[in-house]
Amino acid sequence: RKEFVDLYVNYVFNESIRKPFEDFMQGFLRGCPARKWKIFLPVELQLILQGHTKFDWHLLEQSVIYIGYRKLDRTIRNFWTVFHKLPEEKKKMFLAFLSGSDRIPGYVLEHFTFCIADPQVENPDEMYPFANTCRHILFLPK
């Protein structure tokens, strides 16, 4: 019975997926050559591929660039007051709205910046905030 169980487990976890896994590995290594990944420790590789999952939101606030605003403008102060009161999940949703991902790439946590810009429209009350995800710009009407 032990031999049967060992052979069955080997088939389910190894043999039955060998061909699909080899195809996947071949495609993966074509885009990400294994030689280059060997320089990383597993935890470093996970950080590069997965990104940061824990954030210092105050550090993010300090790295913002303002266009058409100053840091002490009422709109900006109100924005940060509301932002810091949000639960963690809503803050991550904001990050996804801003950048297209709810994570910051692993290599730029300290250097991740975004802009808050005034879209300079005639009637800001008729406009919703919107974002340029490629350039990490939040257009926030006054």
UniProtKB/TrEMBL annotation:
It comes from the Eukaryota. Residues 1-142 form the HECT domain. One of its GO terms (molecular function) is ligase activity. It is an enzyme of class 2 (transferase). InterPro entries: E3A/B/C-like, HECT_dom, Hect_E3_ubiquitin_ligase. GO terms for biological process: protein polyubiquitination. The keyword Hydrolase does not apply. Signal peptide: none annotated. It catalyses: S-ubiquitinyl-[E2 ubiquitin-conjugating enzyme]-L-cysteine + [acceptor protein]-L-lysine = [E2 ubiquitin-conjugating enzyme]-L-cysteine + N(6)-ubiquitinyl-[acceptor protein]-L-lysine. This is HECT-type E3 ubiquitin transferase. It comes from Steatornis caripensis (Oilbird). The lineage of its organism: Eukaryota, Metazoa, Chordata, Craniata, Vertebrata. The gene is Herc3_0.
